[in-house]
Amino acid sequence: MRSRRGPGLRARLTLLATGLSAAVSALLLWLGWLLVGGVVAAVPDLPPGSIVQVDGVPVAARALGEALREAARQRVLQAGSVAFLLAVTATVLLAWMITGQVLRPLHEVTATARRLSAESLDERLRLPGPRDEVAELADTFDAMLDRLQAAFQAQRRFVANASHELRTPLAVVRTEVEVTLADPAADADELRRMATVIRDATLRAQQLVDGLLVLARTEGGALRTRELADLASLAQAALRIVAPEAGSRGLRVTTRLTPAVTVGDPALLERVVGNLVENAVRHNVGGGWVEVCTGLAGGQVMLRVSSSGEVVAPEVVTALFEPFHRGGVARTSHEGAGLGLSIVRAVVAAHTGTVHAEPVLGGGLAVTVHLPAA
Prior knowledge:
It is a single chain. By secondary structure, the protein is an alpha+beta fold. It has 3 domains: 107 residues, no CATH class; 53 residues; 146 residues, Heat Shock Protein 90. It is 56% helix and 14% strand. A hairpin with a 2-residue loop joins β1 and β2. The two termini are 47 Å apart.
């Protein structure tokens, strides 16, 4: 840490206040010296030849005015010098104490910043007292710590999730390569089978990395792009993508799409709609149904994706939004990365919206997203 030389802010403020007080006091003393001289000079003249005593000294009448002026100015200088010293001393003491009280919150900010580390980002100043400039600085510092803590937590989750989940596809790739290399009789079909397994494993790894990057980008971060986006148009595009898979599984898809325009990152909102529609199709049952609705509700835009499927217990619904959790599906499943609803929650939160899921009677899940209307 770079060291700084010279007096601190408290000392500089004290010196500044002392200098101003000394300058004002000296000016007042000088003005008093001039005014006293002027007032005494206006004393009426005595008859010529008169003798008066000034401080026990006989003075001729013609020199009385000058003697009185010098004596008065001398008294003013004596009394004013004492008052000057007292005023400067009082200013030094008061300025030192007052600036110490005013700057104490700044010392707390400095001490907190020095104590902070990646493990203690939960400390906050929460400065009490009047809402002045120092309190505003402390509140800004607390808000900065909130953003830093969110960024550190997102980074930790990214590293932990990536290191945990990427082990499976990497282990698959390594195992397949080692088994194939250990087989001296491996033919072209065996090599093609190995290449297919490696391709699927690398695809899963790519999906994991892409999903984790989206989570890291949206959790605790501000949106980089803000544009108009219609959830109805995004839902139509997502339905066209999953139409072949839905048709092959015999799913009945119904829609009630009315314009639902919001402001946000179109790419992230497209990811939200796509994830919900893909989950509704992928985690469905053969011959089931999917319903997608968009519109306005209570001054907000709404997206609701409902589908049939396996029975979901109410107590499990909240856990579905956690990374790598799949309702009724093992973690080792190769269908998806288990990040769909986690990404939905993070993106919706970044758009200051809400997302809610509830089980469907008879089996299945309904997810509702509310976002601010444009």
